[in-house]
Amino acid sequence: MFISQNAFQNLTSRISSKAAIIRIFLAVLAFSIPAAPGLSGAYQATQVQEVQEDAVHRLWSSTIEPSLRRQVTENNQAQTMAVTLMVPLHAAFQHRDERWIQGFAAQFSQFASDPSALPSGEVAEISRLYYFYLASQFVVLAKSSGRQDLIPQNLPDLIYSELHSFWLVTPAWQFDQKPFPGAGRERLLWKLKNRRVRKSYYRAVLDHDLYVFAIAADLKAFEGNADQQEAWSPLLDDILSITHQVFTQEVAYQPDGGWVFQPGVWTDHPEYQYAGNQQAVSGIKPAPVRGIAPDSSHSLRFPLWLTSLMNAYPSGSDERRFYENLRSGLEKQFFNKVLHQPAPDLPCFLIANFMDGSNGVYRWSYQTLGKENGYGPYQNSASFLLGWWVFLDTERIRTVYKEVAAQFPWPRQCVELYLRPHPSDVPRSESAYDPASSELRTMHICSLLAASL
Predict the structure, then answer these.
(1) From CA 222, how far away is CA 34, in angstroms rounded?
(2) Exposure string over 414-432, b if 16+ CB within 10 A, otherwise e
(3) DSSP state of 16
(4) pLDDT tens digits along 425-435
(5) Which of 443, 375, 434 is nearest to 404 (CA)?
(6) H helices of 18-85, where?
(7) Which residues does 234 contact at the CB level (< 8 Å), separation at least 6?
(8) Which pLDDT score, from 0 to 100, does residue 176 have?
């Protein structure tokens, strides 16, 4: 059954209670249940709402709760949890769902009681930062919601210790050279100073750095007690000062008001070597693109990173306005260049592979995919369904997520793009395309919850 876009938007207008989730989830259901003879419209509406509320909580129980109950002991587990649970974390606090909130509280209570279970060492560095950002967001959201009682006493200091180690203590690895003994701070300042390098990506500001910026901003917003403020401030202020330098120097503004981060810095990287090809087919040759923007899948974190940086500063301050303007420009970039609206030939929301709107091949012959295999046009779109772009915080991005959620189950043509490329030597099971599959249900609830934020 078809419902017009205007009708759907009217049904799913943003409100500040948990009813926002209920109205979005299975909105079509309200139109598809016939009026029962002898029952009032109000009674029928109540019945529909109860059905929908049960449905969204069942989906949460089958997709979110199992992850929250697990202790994090592996790198991939830490990264997957941190990416897939960020939007649910915000939804839990925004809609004041006690069961959902307590699930996150239990996860971080478990972590705080045994932090050594989280993998450590150089290989685990990035997965730890993924997880610590989820933790720092939990701390900020709990405080802003008046639920500081949920924050384990030692959790903020654990987060600070991780920042201190990365920024000042642990030697920082670098491509094709010895680690920087001055840790992450020294490595980053070297990259800001050295523009001429043998390979373009040697001076790339990494996810590691960007996560550290956002976590430091969260701790600044959290503040802590008087003793913590005194102990933390020198490190946090130093990180945030250099963060401002990074965004001032490395952002390239576009004529339409958008911007890209460090254009061309990844041109020489192996994952970008085939970006000039428009089809992921056997026999394609390297075709690096000068000035290529970062890929759209890794870029999904920028809206929330920028929000964290905004919230580290008081309203009306120059610093806050700086990051507000960056987030506004990123929103323009996303809608003008990256987002693909449904069309007759591709009836789904998709995103281009790169943030400048180019849509060439990404990660060709990547180690986990096998030779002669990689991301073709729009095959970074699964990242969009994790919901992070809603942190751009505009009505039009929430409207997009409402429409995405309402389209579920998505057409097979769309699902084939959402599921990304598959290892060439392992056939994909037909069950992966089932709307009841774990991966599609997770994408569904993330887009559903994003629409309600």
Answers:
(1) 50
(2) bbebbbbbeeeeeeeeeee
(3) S
(4) 888 899 999 99
(5) 443
(6) 19-24, 27-32, 41-63, 65-69, 75-84
(7) none
(8) 92
